[in-house]
Amino acid sequence: MAARAIWKGELKVGATKVPVKLYAALKDQSVRFHILDERSKTRVKQHMVKADTGDEVANEKIQKGFEIEPGSFVILDDKELESIEPKATREIEIKKFIPPQAIAPEFYDRPYYLGPDGNETAYFALAEALRKQDREGLAHWVMRKQPYVGALRAEGDQLMLFTLRSADEVLSAKELPRPAGRAPDKKELSMAKQLVEMLRGDFNPKDYQDEYRQRVMEFVEKKAKGRAPRLHLVKSKRAPASLDKILSKSIESLKKKQRAA
Amino acid sequence: MAAGKRKKRQSEDAEQKGARPLWSGTLTFGLVSVPVDLYPGNRTNRAPLRMLGPEDEPLARRYYSEETGRDLDADDMVRGFEIDKDKFVVVTDEELERLAPEQSRDIDLRRFVELDSVPPIYFDRSYFLAPAEGSEKAYRLLVDTMKASDLAGIATFVMRGKEYLVAIFPENGILRAETMRFPDELRSPKEVGLPEPKTVPAATVKKFEQLIAKHSARTLPLKELKDEKTERMLKLIEKKRARHQDVVKVEESDRDEGKVVDIMTALKKSLAKKRKAA
Fold this sequence. Notes:
heterodimer; A: 261 residues; alpha+beta; Ku70, Chain: A, Domain 2; 7-stranded mixed β-barrel; two-stranded antiparallel sheet; B: 278 residues; 8-stranded mixed sheet; 30% helix
């Protein structure tokens, strides 16, 4: 069954417009737990209370404030908060194109599929052009009162739109001190490189499953039937030894495995 | 995981305030093991708004029982999976911890790939791995090796009741750990119902290619990744502060000022401490 579009917009590249529908690219597979009252095993809710007395405060009486210095707040009312909301528009403006490598992994946030909303020719032509030029479009748009900066990208024959995190949100390693540690000597480095090369391969997503999620679900099902298995605590071990001994041992055992395979 | 996620986020935020890592474990490649501490790679909201009462009193968010109306502390609550309507199976923290497979407490780098070959749809959240006490040398070896090979290590591990697929790669001498989505968390274009590609006139493609070439740039300056809404809000706050408009004092008795530490400060401290020790 086809998914429902969550939003409709128009890609604007120069003076050309490409109408698109936006679809969620993620599906939540997490084990859905609820927080319960331990005594009654029923659901809990949340409310706001006065910190000192614990008295409930109704939603419409709550004010929102920003702390400008310890203990001092500027109150913002609903009208003011509305005034900073961007104007609603259907336009996804693409003003700039950059190589995909120009965006580091940590900036990609949520992915969406784009589908054509009418003009299929323009949609597939834009996807093909992006692929041929090996570029991603830098996108600006407003969706549900939120302004977004994003990346427009061809994935296969289709278009995808990613929201990107703001520069303020992402910590850069450049802002951090380099960890210490003696530089490895040539022998260690060349053995370690050899080891990494032996483990080099393609990224095959199908090789990875969330096994833990499956274990949790199996356990929940057994416990529901009153047959929860006994679980034991496993300890992880650590092996201290000299680095180059460990490295050569690692290479040996990998070679053996690869010969056997 | 509506309720569960909220609870987790709250504890993650609380953790960010202290200098404690989110997770500690061992990074392994071959038989080499590198004890590491994991820290978040994202900053929290720059402009958090605090809820205040009608007389500017500080407010707190509390859980209460839907059944009895009674306010609940953390100890009064458990985690439950809804097996039938309103029927729950309780699962404890200890059970979740013990369900983790043995090797998943380690991050075992069994595959190294070119980072550019991973489609961005997989990337989720970012963390940093810092060397734990005594592991600086092996950590540096791994960083230098990965940098020289220009490869990222791929592995899975379990943290706080969830398994993560992760790509690990060096950045400025530090290992970044980017969590990734599992393939079954992603929809395919077919599932979404996107139409089959069709052949399009070469001239239309050419027209787009010319537009792309005309507006191409080599890099993405970080200043283009702005959070406009937050900036507008901070401007409005600054304006009101200068005018002393709606500025209120809030009396708080039991507030622990010392606890509010930026995650960056915590991470810096942790890396600096190790530097001294080495």
